[in-house]
Amino acid sequence: MNTLTTKWGRCGAFTILLGVLLSPAPAAAQSRMSDLDSDATYETQKHLTLAVTKFPEARTALTAFIRKRSVRVQKQEETPSQLKAEFALPKSDLVRLDSLTTAMGFVLENNLNAHDLGGRVGELSAEEQRDVTQLATLQQQLGTAAGSKDERAELRREVERTTNRLADLRQQLAAINGHAGQAYVSLRLYDEVSFPTGNRRVSFVNMPGVEYGYLRLDNPKVGLTSSVYQGYALKYLVTRGKSYLNLGVYRPTEKNSTDEDFVNELFVINFGQDFYPRNFGRGRRRYLNLYTSYQLGGFILNRNSDKGNEFIPNLNLGLGLEILKTRHILLDTKASYFVPLNDRSRDLRGVLGQASFNFVF
Hints:
The protein is of the alpha+beta class. It contains seven helices and 13 strands. The chain has helices at about 1-20, 25-35, 55-70, 95-105, 120-145, 150-180, 345-350; strands at about 45-50, 70-80, 80-90, 105-115, 180-190, 205-215, 230-240, 245-250, 265-275, 285-305, 310-325, 330-340, 350-360. Keywords: Coiled coil, Signal.
C-alpha cells in the first residue's frame, strides 16, 4: 500500500505540475473571452467613417440598414451629432453598405482588412486535443482511491481548471466557425455641420514657420500712419485643425521721422484658427484647399516719440487658400480684414494679406 501511494503521489504531482504549466494565465484567459466579443473571430474587418450634412436622415437610413442586414449588433451608441456602431454583416452586403454611405456624404475612412484564421483554428484545435487528453488522465487518477486528502483536493481543482479551459477553447472555435462568411464592421457617422472637425480630441502638432504680412490701411492719416505696413512674423501651428500662434512686427513702407505721433511699428500677437468648407478639398487635397479663418489677439502700437504706446486688441476675419500641403510642409496664403477694437479703428483698419511657410519640426 505504501508503494502504491508513493507511485500515485509522484504521478499525481507530475500531472498537477504539467497542468499548471499548460494552463493559460488569468489575463490570457480573459483576453480569449474578450476576443469572442470583438472582430478577432472574423476573417474580414471593415472600418468606416462618414461625415454628412443631413445627419438625422443619414442616421435613420443607417440604423434601418443595420437592423435589416446585420447578423449581430455588438455596440450602438447615438448622440445628437454622432452615431457609432459595431456589427456583424454578411460579406455579400458590404457592397450595399458602401453604396449607401457614398450617397450620404463624404467618406473619410473606408478600410477593409482580411486575414486567414486557419492558423488560429489549428492552434486552438491542438490546445483542445491536449486538454482532452489531460482531462481524461486527471479523471482517471481521480477515480482511484489512492492519494491523500490534500492531493485529491488539488486534483479536483485541476480537473475544474482544465474543464473550464476546454470549454473556453471550444467556445472560441465555435465562434470562428459561426462567423464564417461574415464581416465585422466598425462604423462612425457624424454631423459635419455641428461637429465640423470630426474629432473632439485635440491632435497636437509641432510645425513652426515664417509668415510675410502686407497691411494696407483704408484711411491712413497724414502725419499719423503710413498707408502700408509690412513685416514678418513667426507662425506656429499647434493642432492639425490649423490652430496657430502668430508673433511678428509690421513697419511702415513710408518713412517719417519728423512727426512724433507717427506710428512706426505694430508688434502683433494673435491666435488663429482655420476652417475647411465641405467643398473645395475639405482640407484633404495636396493642392488648393480653400478655407475661412479668424485671428484674435492684439498689437502694441509704437510711435516715433516712444510716448503714448498702447496695446490694442484686434480681430481679423478672412479667406485663405493652401497652395501646397503635405505631411511635412504647408505653403499657405490668406486675405483678411484687419480690425482694431478701439476708438482708433478708423485710422488703423485695413486689408491684410499673408503668406506663410510651415514645416514639421
